[in-house]
Design a protein that fits this description.
The protein is an all-alpha fold and 219 residues long. It folds into 2 domains: 91 residues, Helicase, Ruva Protein, domain 3; 72 residues, no CATH class. Helix content is 56%, strand content 2%. The protein is built from 11 helices and 2 strands. A two-stranded parallel ribbon has the order 1-2. The longest helix has 21 residues. The relative contact order is 0.09. GO terms for molecular function: ATP binding.
Amino acid sequence: MGSDTPVHSDFWLIAGTNKDLKACVRAGSFREDLYARINVWQYTLPALADRREDIAPNIAYQLDIAGFELGRKVRFGRVAYERYLAFAMSDGAVWRGNFRDLSASILRLATLANDGKINEILVDDEIGRLQTLWADDDIKDDVGINPALLAKINAQDLDEFDKMQLLNVITLCQSHPNMASAGRALFNHSRLNKANANDSDRLRKYLGKFGVSWGEIKG
């Protein structure tokens, strides 16, 4: 710093992000020239939500770490573990923060298990906490939404409630590979009471009320 003598270096710059930089460029939240400079090679590392087979062993691993940090052995009750694992493996568990979310979740459960055993009440509370966390993130972060689609939504005369709900649905849809998967996550309770749970059709009709198509969401 402060020298007039040039210093040369030979290195590769490796950048990592959990954002869709191309979408951020379109939205104006990331510099296009910087994206062009760093976009030489791209590698996609699957998110935790796309590696469901890694969830169970990482629950055990994070539980051991939490027990070490707390200085006591912590374990799940059988029913509590089955309930937590079922949620963790479900489409409704988006794990937006990847392993950071899982690590924090297990640490909270272990800390609150005063007798060293994580019970169903703690698990139910934690599931609710995660759902609220991810719902808040969905509402706050609309960067990944196609700017043209976002402008189309903003141009409609919608109540704030309807607009926020629609943005929430669209953001969730973006994290799923197809309409059927997104529908299962959105209608995860009501679909159980239907003889024929046509989640794709229900989602298509909901989006259609606002003139939104699946292609626009994924485009």
